[in-house]
């Protein structure tokens, strides 16, 4: 029996993780669940999966859950509650499926208690990759990727000598506006931006996908997860999202991981690794798919990816500022405050204002994060 806690169980990754769990009930037990504000869904999940502890974003929501759930279920709330859910149970694995860098303290709390991390929450690694990786290494904790590209690379590297890796290539669908020119992006709507061609995901990552900031976050995520230099990482547009990423080795062999775009595959692999199990996802039929396409990344078309590479290479506080500026810009776009192209302008402006700041400690990171959020709110 594998014991699992899910941070963000009511979201896209969270619900798909519970699908995986429900598909093989003998194998898994749910130790803890956390939601933001979707209390109704969290209550339903708790009644079905019987966690010992659940967390909601606020005290009021926690009180609402208290009225519905048996007294044996501990109910906590807020940032402290989230860390308690992450660290305070006998779970073996914590799936970090919360959105944004607010997932960082709970992820660190889980690492401190020696929990394996099944990492979907890429913003955590972008914000504080050096600290997360160092603490995980010190505790002997594995960080297993859930993000589809990183799961693909992890699978391609299985059993390989990391020193023989020449290049890691992340594939990118191109997002909801992949067939539009930059001129056509003026005036696109939130509804259009949320219409991802291949994946059904939460709002934030769907917008990130359309701006290509998602691939930027993923480049930095790959740098930390696989110890790859930025010059070794590149991005290729692949509209079908069938090849999830690939690795080129010294002998020019290329190993790719493929499958239908269904997050239940990488989620399950992170839960069963190193074993492979039957999956609730569908079988890929290449003959039916027929053709796969690839085209070179255009950094002028997708400047957010360029800013992410620059931030990653600059290191220090830059990735933290990139992530925070992007989180605020996406929220402002979703609220109708700025245009779609405003997102990249906010990021560019905030990074342009960043003075050489260090990010050696969590305190320094929190300061940069707060500064970048304020700067992004004021652009
Ligand atoms: N969706 C996907 O296919 C993929 C997602 N990822 C990454 O996984 C992470 C999650 O993405 P996704 O599942 O799409 O996101 P969703 O928006 O669908 O879900 C986010 C989860 O976080 C919770 N949450 C939001 N705000 C708060 C808060 N203030 N306090 C506590 N919990 C909160 C939400 O709770 P509630 O809904 O109850 O408010 C929900 O459970 C992101 O980092 C994303 O980049 C990576 C690869 C693929
Ligand atoms: C499913 C997943 O991993 C997302 O992070 C995905 O990467 C989004 O697709 P694109 O970024 O390729 O549009
Ligand atoms: Mn991804």
From TrEMBL:
Enzyme Commission (EC) number: 1.1.1.267
Domain DXP reductoisomerase C-terminal: 258-374
Molecular-function annotations in GO: 1-deoxy-D-xylulose-5-phosphate reductoisomerase activity
Substrates-to-products reaction catalysed: 2-C-methyl-D-erythritol 4-phosphate + NADP(+) = 1-deoxy-D-xylulose 5-phosphate + NADPH + H(+)
Annotated residues for binding of Mn(2+): 147, 149, 218
Cofactor: Mg(2+); Mn(2+)
Residues noted as binding NADPH in the record, renumbered to the chain: 10-13, 36, 38, 121, 123, 202
Record key words, sorted: Isoprene biosynthesis, Magnesium, Manganese, Metal-binding, NADP, Oxidoreductase
Stored Pfam families: DXP_redisom_C, DXP_reductoisom, DXPR_C
Chain ranges of the 1-deoxy-D-xylulose 5-phosphate reductoisomerase N-terminal domain: 4-129
Residue ranges of every copy of the 1-deoxy-D-xylulose 5-phosphate reductoisomerase C-terminal domain listed in the record: 143-226
Binding site for 1-deoxy-D-xylulose 5-phosphate: 122, 148-149, 173, 196, 209, 214-215, 218
Pathway note: Isoprenoid biosynthesis; isopentenyl diphosphate biosynthesis via DXP pathway; isopentenyl diphosphate from 1-deoxy-D-xylulose 5-phosphate: step 1/6
Highest rank taxon of the organism: Bacteria
Family the UniProt entry places it in: Belongs to the DXR family.
PANTHER family reported in the protein's UniProt record: 1-DEOXY-D-XYLULOSE 5-PHOSPHATE REDUCTOISOMERASE, 1-DEOXY-D-XYLULOSE 5-PHOSPHATE REDUCTOISOMERASE, CHLOROPLASTIC
Function (record text): Catalyzes the NADPH-dependent rearrangement and reduction of 1-deoxy-D-xylulose-5-phosphate (DXP) to 2-C-methyl-D-erythritol 4-phosphate (MEP).
The protein's name in its UniProt record: 1-deoxy-D-xylulose 5-phosphate reductoisomerase
